Every structure is written in structure tokens, then in C-alpha cells.
């Protein structure tokens, strides 16, 4: 590791004035020691799982000999072609749906006088507070063929069930809607970053509003649109909850659900699952790479960004009520109905359509069941503990790693930067599988304990911690540090007394974000947990598999309540959590 | 007091890196030699990118030069490049005071805490006790007239107060050497002027040796006991302010400090320090310490305010040129005339009571003792 080996270079500069005896020069200073350890941890977390994934895929699980059998089984299976077609269809479809919805909402919000602007940002926190698994369950309640509420309402009119959520179209609908707030925030940023004078000069040239949108606004947004489609496609490809809950019912497989299926059936085919995971990883990495290259290219052509002055919003006139109705409809469908249905279901003894009898049978029985279910309290405790521990560890490590990357000037610091961003392209399920490979082969007895989950979360959320820490580090003038150094402070004194207090707001925001996403993590936990170590998300998953929808709904309400508290604290701290949803 | 010899710092050339070719290093400081006496206010003056800040930061220990020697009061702070063992005392062990361009006031600390910090982080054993710290902080706050703000949040101070706070923090450890990195550039023009005199008074009263970095020639001329003018990493002229202003040894210094007219020509002959230079508009007599053999292409430089402008033909025609007024500009406390003399345009600054129409026939006299001889280019 070049990062680790170059740190001692800094050592002489920290050494005291008087020339130290020769032997002292071989003892690393505390600074070199801390930096070295942090670099090693990051490298370990980022590299080791991938290395073992490759090993686990190519080495036969029984004989340990080189094999391509996994690939043969995974990709020449009769259903392999269909699986890949479903994956692409599902991912691209979800990305496009979220793009259309998100861009339209962003345009209305930034550029027009549409009413109910407050609802937009209430809607935008949905993906954070309602995890994918609960969102999918809510949509089962809404649009499944036999129990769906919407079908129940519409059946008298059309004479048959109108919606079937257990299709690829249904999956696209749920995933696309769930992603649309992220696209919304992304496009809002893009709309705002545009220099308004570009559009105004087009107006002054005599172009109509519509021509300006068509000829100036949209072409300028092209890089943002392309980036958002790519990111959302990769995210949908990595998504596990929606395909698992909605697709498996009718045997519609995508990469993630297929990997899960292969590991859940006996005998477990590790080589085959690894082959699929590597394929998924390659696609995700390629997508992110293309996105990165595109955004770099786009920056070269970026115009001066608008400052202060905002163009007058477009007056919608007679369309204003219609747009308003659209906004309310969107809010009802994405936020209100799913939430209400979960609360409604959580109060019922068994799932039934809304009726007088149903309302009469309502009680808090499901919640008291939870109280008496030892698994539930353990799960809540575990989820809270993991969220707390992962957030704390990641932010501590990343505060120091960010210093190395932003300030140290150590050669090879870019490598550390790259390493800490690497987990971003590892889908959660793939990470779960990789860690399984690592700790089945390495004799460290953490397999099947809560610690393996902690390692998984720390790895997954390394990039987010890095982003928060680096951003806040860059906002601190280096002169603040230098003046402390000239004042006689040692590196550690500077870090503790000057940097840390100034970094605190940024680190706290990152901490809460990681707490939130760890608290509801499912896709890597599902391969790593063992009974006795349940988590809230896993327990919800188990209730779904057992068909206990009412208990599930009660668990979901508890989970959403906790998340809402956390997210509102985050908003209080002024953290921009919305964009970085996993 | 402060010795700097053969100091060099270079970076890999940006262009060379991108083009993929190797070699090409950019010198931030190239062989700088300085000697600063006890109690001096020594200024490094130059345009941005000339290496003055890099030099200052090298003294502070915030930059790591490639080679050279830096020592303060005989204590070697940095040494590298020759056969002796390399020395590089860390910034936090150099015991110097520094005021940064942005002041670098720690926003999360009070005024008191900002000033107490350098004492609180002293190595155990050298660290003063709590009461001692308090006393010393209050003493320096007193000098800086910040005593009543001790408990205030540091960021709540005004620009001038922040500047004094930065100074208080730098002085609290009673450093051998005070480093000032463009400490006035963040202030508005009026405040800058009053703080300039304040700074000079404090420096004089405390008798502290200071290195002052600035790109503002007025600041440099009014504050310093000695100035080193820097360009492209090298010291191009070193001397007392008046000396540098009146006898620039290069076109760069003549242009950078104040403004100058340049008249091209070549040396006809010289006797000791007396030169006769042939220019397109006639012969000019001047005295200069420069070494320019006859025949050398040179520029004769003269400050606009030392040119004498009259409408009557002077009796003594030595160093007198004839021309017409091109344009004039009223500056409030002065008037600038651009006088066309043949192909040349000479800028003349005079008192506002002299104001001549464009086209007026005029004579300009270039006093012998005000002319300087600089190499061309």
C-alpha cells in the first residue's frame, strides 16, 4: 500500500528540534501511526471483499480448483437470457419513469408558479423514511390482483382487476416512483445551476417561452439528464427489495433476486451466485465510470452559474389548477396512500379491505404483540446498535482519511480517495456475498455474529462518510490549521482543538445519514444475518415470507417513526440528506 | 538575525505533466538570499506568483523548500541540499509568530481562547500555568486594545479588530520573528491606511523583527526599513525604500514600484558614474551606479512626478525635450499630462494648478539626478 508506506516520510517534519537518536527515527510518530492505520483500514474494507468475491467465483467451492462452472451455470441457464432481459427492462424502465416524473416536478417547482411548493420537499424525503421493502409492501396492499385496494375500488367500473403489481410493469412503477424524489432533487439542482441569463438572452432574441425551453433549457440540461438516467439505472439494477417482493411471486427474476434465490436453494451454488454478482458488479462499475467521465466532460463546458438573480417564474395561467391537482395526486400516491395503508393494516387483526367491519375490528393488538415478541425488541436494539456503531466508526475513520486526501499532500493520497469511493459501485447484495466468502474462508470467528454486519455497513457507507468529511474539510481554510501550527500546536492538537470542532456540523450530518441508512439496510444484511441476530429490516422480511402482513405493518410503522425522528433531526442540523439516498 | 541562503523550491511543471513529457520544473523560489537585522521591518514585495509568500511560508515551516538554509538568531530552522545533515524544524517547533492574510481567526473560539491557544499548546514542561496564561493573554490584549472583547466570539469582531486579534495571537509567545502575510489586503482602503501607521508604531515600540509580505508598493515604501523586490522566484533588487524608488536597477522594478517613463537609447560614453545616453530625441545626461559600457542598448527611466513641464523654453537646454500635450487627466491632487515627444509619449505629473490644453507646445526637463539607467527588456 503506497499510502501506508509514504506516511513515515512526514515523520521527520514532526520530530523535535534537537536531532533525535537514530533509533527514534524508526519509531513512527503518533501522527504517522494514526494516518497509517486509517489508510490500512480503508484499504482493507475496500479491497478484501472484492478479492474474495473473485476467488469465491473462480475457485470451486468443494475442490478449490479453478473453475468456470459458476459462469456456465449462471449464464447458460434456460432462464438466464430472460433474467437479463428482465433486469435491463426493469432498470431502464424505472430510471425513465423516475426521470419523467422527477424532471417534470423539478421544472414545475423551480421555473413555474405552481401551487403547493411545500409538498415537493415533503415528498422528497420519502425514499429516506420509507424503505424499499415497506414501499413495496404498501403497493401490494394497493395494487395486487387479489387484495389491492385500487383494484377493489375500480373493479365495479371495469369489471376486472385493473392493476397487477406482480409484473415487470408493476415493479417498474414501484421502483420508479420510489426513485423519483431523488431524480427530483437532482434535477432541481441542475435547474438551479443554470445561468438564467442564457435563457433571458434567448428571450431577448425574440424566442417564445416554449422555444426557449426546447432550444436552450433542455439542451443545457442534457448532461444532467444523462447522468441521472445512468445513476438511476444502476440503482434499480442493484435494488433488491422490489424485485424480491414483487417479482418472485410470478417467477420474474433479475440479477439481485436470482443471486438471492441461488443462495437460498440447496445445495448453495456459491460459484454461480458469484458469477452473477461479478456480472452485476461489472455493469454497475461500468455505469458509474461512464457517469463519472460524462460529468467530467460536462464540467468543461459548464457556463458561469447564476448568482442571486432568479428569472421570473413562468405563469401557468389556466393550467395552474391542473398542475396543482397533479402535485396533490403525486403526493397522495407516493406518500399519503402508502403510509395510510401501513398504519391501517397495522391496526387490523388480519388484512381485509376497508369496511365498517374492518374499522370496528381495529386495535393495537399487533403493537402489543411486538412488545411481547422478544425477537422484535432484539431486532430494534440490534438495528439501533448497528446504526450507531457504523455511523460513529465511519465518521471517525473518514474524518482522518479526508484530512489525508484534502490536506496532507502525501503521495498516493488519491489512491485512498479512490479506495474509499470504491464501495459505491458494489451492490449491497454483492457485498453481502463477498463478505460471506471472506469470513467463511478467513479464520476470524465473526461469521454469523452482529460484527460481520457492522463490517458490511462500514464498508457500504464508507463513500458517504468520505463525501461528508471531505466537503466539510474543504470548507475550512487551511490557514486556520497553519496558524495553529505556527502557534506551536502538534498535529494531534491541531486536529483535536481546531479541525474537529470546525468539522463537527459536517461530521454530525454524515453521522445521522449513515445512522438512517444503516438502520434500515436490507440487501447486504439478508445474506449475513443469522437467527438470534435479527434486525428490524430482516424481521419485516421474515413477516412477509410468513404472510403476517398485520405484524409487518406494525413493525413498519415503528421503523418509519424512528426514521422520521432521525431525518427531522438531520434536517434541523441543516444536512442535505435527500440527494444521497442509497 | 534571520539568514536565508540559496533557498530553492520548485514544483513539477504543470504543462510538462499534462503533455506527458518530463523535466520542466517551475521554480517558486530560485536561489533567494536574505539577511535581516534585529529590529528590522523587512518587506518582501512583488506581484502575485513572484515567490514572496512561498519564501515567507518557508521561514514559517509551512512549505518544504528543496534546498538552502534558513536560520534565526543562529538557530538553524531548515537546511538541505549540501553535504551536511538535513534539518527541518516543524512549524510548531519554530516558535515564530505569524499573521495570515485571512487572519485565520478560529471561529469556534472566543477572543481570549484564540490568544491563549499558542500558550496552551506549548509542550508539557514549558507550558505556563493557568493564571500565568491568563495574565499574559490579558497583557497582550491590553496592548492591542482588545481587553474589553476578551469574552466575545472572535468572529463578532470588526475587520480591524480581527487584524489586531491575529497580531495579538502571533505576539503572545513573544516570538523572535514576526511573519506578516499581506495582513492589510483584506481591509477597505481607509482602514488600511490607518492600520498601516498603527502597525508601524507597534513594530517600532515592541522592537520586534518582522518580515512583511505585500504586493502593495505604498505599504512597502511606507512601512519598511528594507525591501526585497521579488520577481519569478528571484530577488531582483534589495535596499532601502527611497533607494529602490529613486534608483531602480531594472525596468521591472521601475514599473512595479510607482510608474515610470522609459526612453530607449544607447550609452555614448561614461566617466565614472556620469553617463551620456543617445536617444531618438536627443542626448541625455545622467548619473548611475550601473555598469554599462559605451554602446550598450539601455532604457532611461524617469518618474512622472520628477519631470518638469514648462511652456517657456528653459535657458539651460541640457536634458530638455520639446513636444506637444497629447491628453491630460485631472486626478484631484495632481494633473497628468501625456506629452508627445517625437515618437515617445512621456507622462508628466504636476500640481493641479498647471493644466494645459491638448496641442500646447511644451518643454519638458529631465533632471540629471532623477534619471535612472536600466537594462532594456
UniProtKB/TrEMBL annotation, chain A:
Location in the cell: Cell inner membrane; Cell membrane
CDD domains in the record: TM_PBP2
Keywords: Cell inner membrane, Cell membrane, Membrane, Transmembrane, Transmembrane helix, Transport
GO biological process, alphabetically ordered: transmembrane transport
Domain of life: Bacteria
Listed transmembrane segments: 32-54, 88-108, 120-142, 168-191, 212-234, 270-290, 322-344, 384-406, 418-438, 444-463, 498-519, 549-571
Major site of localization recorded for this protein: membrane
InterPro entries for this protein: MetI-like (IPR000515), MetI-like_sf (IPR035906)
Domain ABC transmembrane type-1, first and last residues per copy: 84-291, 380-570
Any GO CC annotation of this UniProt entry: plasma membrane
Membrane topology: Multi-pass membrane protein
Pfam families hit by this protein: BPD_transp_1 (PF00528)
Assigned protein family: Belongs to the binding-protein-dependent transport system permease family.
Record protein name field: Iron(III) transport system permease protein
UniProtKB/TrEMBL annotation, chain B:
Molecular function, one GO term: ATP binding
Record-level GO cellular component terms: ATP-binding cassette (ABC) transporter complex, substrate-binding subunit-containing
InterPro entries in UniProt: AAA+_ATPase (IPR003593), ABC_transporter-like_ATP-bd (IPR003439), ABC_transporter-like_CS (IPR017871), ABC_transpr_MalK/UgpC-like (IPR047641), Mo/tungstate-bd_C_term_dom (IPR008995), P-loop_NTPase (IPR027417), Transp-assoc_OB_typ2 (IPR013611)
Pfam families assigned: ABC_tran, TOBE_2
Keywords: ATP-binding, Cell membrane, Membrane, Nucleotide-binding, Translocase, Transport
Organism domain of life: Bacteria
Record domain ABC transporter: where: 2-257
Protein name: Iron(III) transport system ATP-binding protein
Organism: Nocardioides terrae
